[in-house]
Fold this sequence. Notes:
With 143 residues, this protein is mainly beta. The chain has 2 helices and 12 strands, in the order ββββββαβββαβββ. The chain has helices spanning 64-67, 101-108, and strands at residues 4-8, 14-18, 28-30, 37-43, 46-51, 56-60, 75-80, 84-89, 94-98, 113-118, 122-127, 132-136.
Amino acid sequence: TQNHLYLLTTEGKVYSGDMHHGGTDGFTELFGDGQRTTDIDIYWYHILALKEDGTVCARGKNMPAVNEVNDWTNVVKVAAGEEFSLGLRADGTVYYAGGDAAFAKRVAGWSGVTDIDAGYGFCIALFDDGHVEMAGTFTSYDR
């Protein structure tokens, strides 16, 4: 993000450093739960960490996107959006955490998803038959 540097080490530890105040001297370990992190995704307000057991941890601004990921299981990929979080499950379905009910309903209906990504108010999913779908608000982008 603009003022923070996040690092995922080969040992599966995640560190955060404030680049705005003097560089990389003050790194702090996040998610020090003793379990290896295999992937991270970051949006301005929050960071998601995928653990090797398929669970997800989050840190950041106090909002549903951060607070509602603790019971996710069997996740293979995470995607952090503006004020929401996504978790792609091994069975091709998607978890959603955030405050947009229409967005949540759309994502809940997906199956056969092989990849996900997220951005400013929207997400995109690639399906096993090759088609792509988007959900969310697209006011800032051409479709």
